[in-house]
Amino acid sequence: MSQSVANHPVLDPLLAPPFPQAALPMLRNPQLRTNVAHAIDVIQAKRFRLVNEKTDWQELRDAASAIRAESLRNLGFYLVQFETQCTAAGGTVHWASDATEARQIILDLLRQENASEVIKIKTMTSAEIQLNPFLQAAGVDVFETDLAEIILQLGDDEPSHIVVPALHVNRSQVREIFARRMGLDNLSDDPQALTAAARTYLRQKFLKIPTAISGANFLIAETGSVVVVESEGNGRMCLTLPRTMITIAGIEKVLPRFQDLEVMLQVLARSATGERMNPYTSLWTGVTPGDGPQSFHVVLLDNQRSSILARPVERQTLKCIRCAACMNTCPVYRQTGGHAYGSVYPGPIGAILTPQLMQMHHAQSLPFASSLCGACYEVCPVKINIPEVLIELRSQVVNQERHQFASIFDPMFLGMKIANLLFQKAWRFHLAQRLGRIGARLFTRKDGWIHSLPSLGAKWTQTRDLRALPSQTFHEWWAARAKEAR
Amino acid sequence: MSTAASSASRQQILDRIRAATRTSSNGSAQFVEDHAALPRNYVRSGKLTTEARIALMIERLREYDAEVLESTPENLVASIRAQLAASGKRTFVLPQGLPVDWLVSGFDWKVDNGLATADIEQAEGVVSAAFCGVADSGTIVLHHSPTEGRRVLTLLPDWHLCILRGSQVVETLPEYFDRCKRPPAFHPSDGDLSLGTPALVTWISGPSATADIEMTRIKGVHGPRFLHVIMVRDDI
């Protein structure tokens, strides 16, 4: 069994260790890295093929980006329009400022229904507000119905990806979890058999449990409709069979018009799973007599989104449609997997979203968990300039730290202050160069390389060698050349 | 129920949003204009001939492991009979709005005049019509009219036979959305939504599938494992 399954990963940004520390056990877990790399290779190859077959991919990205930006620009209007239309169609809209309010609203609704059990469609927003442990503690049994979510729930594990949350678990690990938790000793590790086991396990739950919770991929302002994009049909089951449906959605999920889906549905599946279209997409509007749940609630969650909206550079974070293309292409995510990010939102989007959801009070190591290579921006179907936001957040983190008293003794800030002094005058800089050359001689080996530096410098030379400083600076060479010419 | 709390939160959230975006809740004309001005330079209309469009739809459906059979309108009932016979199944449900001659003899039919879930669950298969087919992605779109049935009807049975007419097949997804602008013949919410947009939609692209275990595609998790399509060539 992999370490990540044995040691419960911490995805609460309040409690999670900083990224570099959390990444270490992942990097030392060859099984996990193999699993993650395999899954990502498969998705990437499919995505690449299907994006390339689209002749209008860049135009679709432009449109998707513009639609999302406009939704955010006029968010207040569209949310009220959504509320009006959804209410007119028989739904009830609730507003939650933060996670605590959202959880309480959902629990109150469940209590009204006397629900002791609830079935769930995969929703990252519910993971964000840590809904499951809250409901369990309040005496409501929660059953996840997405295959990956069942694997995680039964394996007491946490999601490491927002689209394929169990991509870090391989088939033999799934077999072990299912055999143990479903009491199926003779289960094989064939994915077909494992999937069949999940189907049987859930069928009765679908037919019996009258209350369901879902997330939303999109809310349509013009009609008050909700859209859920899925593959397995567990979503359709939850949207159709129960008496009561509760949907939790971030306030940023709204799209102005039904027709906007003609763009979003084309870019979402291709970006997320490398399919032309995912097997099932469902749209419903309030309550339809005789078809599906007759009681329908939407919980609109702010949870810091409105403060992200107020910031000009960071606002684009809210354009995200949660396709996960950025994490699939990220060289850092590929090495560490998702748990190292200490949040339900990993990868590049998690690196910018999580610290903002925490008002920059936690998860400050995440904006640094990137090489700024820009691959995430290139694949993003709604053109979020993630590197730009990363740099903005880095500067905020540095500013926070700069103003702390401890920064006086921090070697990085001390170094920066010294550099600041040196760069102010040319003579200081030249003097530093000369002294540096003398100092560096102590560490330069005969082969002309510096292999190891003491104290802080060791952080650099741990993984790389440095060339010795040249015997002459450019300025010195130029001056000498001028002298010779005379 | 925390109604008072929720309404206080509502005001607070909307105030924060309006402060962040510097807009008021009024002036909807401005938003309509804003939205209309967005760049939409992607492909709207397809360029294929009718024959090529239908061929692409069939090819894409087959890529999803759906079984597709072409039929003339005259031959439709015989085609349905052949598909049902080949399925080896006996009990079928179908929506109440379909022509009675589709209920071919030799099988047990349960017409959905408010069937109990258990009855639908026990049926081995379902026969339905569709609203539209999108060739580009091999997608079948259901609007759940009386010929397409309630959502649960095409979900619980393991085997789905969908009757799609050639005239319903468009090439691109935007063309499907164009079709939705026309007032539909039937609307579940009785024309409540004046724009002609449907209240219920299911976009189906191949049978239920998952790739959650090592990205291996497995057919049939919860929805029907078998999707059969009869393509009725009313377009020729």
Outline of the structure:
The complex is a heterodimer of chains A (486) and B (236). With 486 residues, chain A is an alpha/beta fold. Chain A is built from 23 helices and 12 strands.
Model description:
The complex is a heterodimer of chains A (486) and B (236). Chain A has 486 residues and is an alpha/beta fold. Chain A has three domains: 14-306, Rossmann fold, CATH 3.40.50; 317-407, Alpha-helical ferredoxin (Fumarate Reductase Iron-sulfur Protein, Chain B, domain 2, Orthogonal Bundle), CATH 1.10.1060.10; 412-485, no CATH class. Chain A has helices spanning 3-6, 19-27, 30-52, 57-73, 75-88, 99-112, 124-128, 131-137, 147-154, 171-182, 191-208, 234-240, 261-273, 305-309, 325-329, 331-336, 347-357, 375-379, 386-402, 411-424, 426-441, 457-461, 474-485; strands at residues 91-96, 117-120, 141-144, 211-214, 218-220, 225-230, 244-250, 254-255, 280-285, 295-301, 449-450, 466-467. In chain A, a hairpin with a 4-residue loop joins strand 5 and strand 6. In chain A, helix 3 (30-52) crosses helix 13. The longest helix of chain A has 23 residues, at 30-52. The radius of gyration of chain A is 26 Å and the shape is elongated. Chain B has helices at 3-21, 28-36, 50-63, 76-87, 117-122, 173-181, and strands at 67-71, 91-95, 108-112, 125-129, 132-134, 139-142, 159-165, 169-170, 201-204, 209-210, 218-219, 226-232. In chain B, a hairpin with a 7-residue loop joins strand 10 and strand 11 (218-219). Chain B is globular, with a radius of gyration of 22 Å. At the A-B interface, helix 3, helix 4, helix 5, strand 1 and helix 6 of A face helix 1, helix 2, helix 5, helix 6 and strand 9 of B.
